[in-house]
Specification:
By secondary structure, the chain is α+β, with helices and mostly antiparallel strands. It has four helices and seven strands, in the order H-E-H-H-E-E-E-E-E-E-H. The chain has a domain of 102 residues: Alpha-D-Glucose-1,6-Bisphosphate, Chain A, domain 4 (2-Layer Sandwich).
């Protein structure tokens, strides 16, 4: 039982509808260097390398100024997949865009847990990540609809 609790991922899905073209929505969300502008949990991003469509970067998160490594894969006008490869976070954050009736549905889906000894607090941070995601998506929506 103890092991199951420790390895459980927090699943978070947040959606919003945007009055925009797919091109404009993609232009805003695919500018991944701008992430701290929208995502308050991300303080700083630094691209380390880019090869074969995979962007490796270091991000500093607001939680204790922890540094995490990520691999980002951009699927133009469809999806941004961020995989946490090292640091306090383990898992993925996937942002997708889907056209619907001349609007765009933007979705952010997390499968995340805290790594190492911190994994027992994954449940505690789930609501924090969800509210941060809701805030970020509203901020992105406002920027796109301007």
């Amino acid at each position: 039982m103890q092991k199951e609790i420790q390895t459980r991922m927090a699943s978070i899905v947040v959606q919003t509808e945007i009055n925009s073209s797919l091109d404009k929505a993609w232009e805003i969300i695919s500018d991944i260097d701008n992430e701290p502008k929208f995502w308050k949990g991300t303080k700083e991003v630094k691209t380390l390398s880019e090869k074969d469509g995979i962007i490796k970067r270091e991000i500093t998160i607001a939680f204790r100024d922890q540094k995490c490594l990520q691999e980002i894969e951009l699927k133009p006008k469809k999806e941004i997949k961020a995989k946490f490869t090292k640091g306090i976070l383990d898992g993925t954050k996937i942002i997708t865009l889907a056209p619907k009736n001349e609007k765009i549905i933007m979705e952010t889906a997390w499968e995340i847990k805290l790594s190492g000894m911190m994994n027992m607090f994954t449940g505690v941070i789930k609501n924090h990540i969800k509210s941060g995601t809701e805030q970020a998506m509203q901020s992105i929506k406002r920027e796109i609809e301007e």
